[in-house]
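Researcher: Let's run the pair from yesterday's discussion. Sequence first, then tokens, for each.
Model: Starting with the first of the pair.
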Amino acid sequence: MRLLVIGGTRFLGRHLVAQALQAGHRVTLLNRGRANPGLFPQADHCIADRNGDLSVLGDDERWDAAIDNCAYLPRQVHALAARLAGRVGQYQMVSSISVYAAFRPGMAEDAALATIDDPDTETVDGRTYGALKALCEQAAEAGFPGRCLQPRPALIVGPHDPTERFTWWVRRFARAEPGGEVLAPGRPDAPVQFIDVRDAAAWLLRQAEAGTTGAFNLTGPDPAGTMGGLIDALRTTLGPTVRPVWVDEDFLRAAGVEPWSDLPVWLGRDEEASHRLDASRARATGLRCRPWAETIADTAAWAATAAASPSTPPGLAPAREAELLARWRAP
């Protein structure tokens, strides 16, 4: 196949391109050339800002599939569609589960999508992100009618993750002293869903080969996971003698601890339905999720040589965690 990948040198795109090249596909990358510019010398590189002139793509090039990893505004999709009209077989607009207006357990792809009062906004933040992704999906359908795939990933984790969310837990258990304690939030049976970036990339590539269309919740595991299962997998893989201390959600919230940001991956009881999405449609089209232990071990190996990426990484600072554990035990 001939693939056009928008982005392709950071997280999901990086793994996708590596797998595509290994499979023998010809890959063209369209990006600004800023992130990891030395990657993939065997690919064709088109250096341009997608928000500007796209003539670098040429007028005669054709691709079997275009995979767009970094569309956040509908105008970006419209512009790409105008440039690629009639020259792309399948278009994949990598979306997000944030497109949903609300979450309920077992929710499938036909659930209502988020809307926004100011659809022309250029501000992408917690208020606008999901609704703008939904508008990007609509732009994709309009620009590539009958040829559009809309993957909706949940939390993507694994090596080269720039967000440090899942990686925070890996680093936390990796630095734990033998026999030490780690704060475990909420209930062990609270649901948890995420997907290894390599499994997501493999599924995207498989759907490009098949020409699949439509929307798909892209997450794992199968069967569903729990916070207790994640903590056990972290402990078994990285620190068998580490002792988790389960701390009640109400206590944590009263202490000002925020799910997701202060304790990544974990969601409070009012939000945990977003960890219970139905991904059976993706599994029916070939999604396979590797064991959590493999994801943890490989992420730990990468994190051991990688600096934390965000300027303000998520997760509790060690002193704050120790303070909370002391207060939890206090009479």
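Model: Moving on to the second of the pair.
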Amino acid sequence: MDFLNIGYCQSFVLKNFDSNLDLTLKKIESLATQGVKIICLSEFFCLPYFCDEELYENFELAIDNQSSFFLKLQSVATTFKIVIVASYFEKRTQGLYHNSVCVIDADGKHLGIYRKMHIPDDPNYYEKFYFTPGDLGYKVFNTKYAKIGVLICWDQWFPEAARLVALMGAEIIFYPTAIGWNTSQTEPVNQEQYQAWQLIQRSHAVANGVHIVSVNRTGIEQDGRMQFWGGSFVANPFGSILYQSPHLQEDNPIIKINLKETGFYRTHWPFLRDRRTDSYDPICKKFID
């Protein structure tokens, strides 16, 4: 496929897991009937963002890999012949939890999972309390329609992660995300943060010559402390914005992308050709004194 319709769900998140899942499945079906082939959902689309507090009872929100959650996604993927990228809170075993994404292919096959590698710890984002860093490495999934890389939220700030999945053959990088503004911040601070978030991901598109799809949630959560900023977007392999969602509204867009653009931009701007891999060993050090 050269041209491919991709879609995503930028949603308000309710407090009930099953309600969120049912509403999302309906949105997926609607997008699929309009010709979308790959659909990405935001980070923890079935759960309020619970990492604003360190509460042991929140571990009860996690699901294991035998959950009916996957069967429901597989069923809709099979029915509509679509690929689904879905985030979830993974209970691997008692006392071991991950921030994970599953990829369901267009025939309903579960292609595997990616576990978030970079785990943040900031005010209102206490993820290190909940999540063990991923141990599966960076992953690329060979779906029916494209070879895709999947990274999660905080991963999106690290150029090394984007580079690695691009080197593994990813034609599109998907970033399920949950990030927002503290409601006590000023508008200039809010906008500076959003622009930095978008800019860093657009730079990954340019450096690697791949499409970027970043899918955020929206709505006020955390008892009014956090406005998730929406603003989900798709960028082409030279960083141009093909589509950007509004900040404060739900959005379920369809965006047509041209996968052949990777070859065009990589030929005219041959960053991969000119990489000096023999000189990069120091990048593996934490700091160079």
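Researcher: Give me one sentence on the second I can quote.
Model: The helical segments are 17-33, 68-80, 159-167, 187-208, 261-268.
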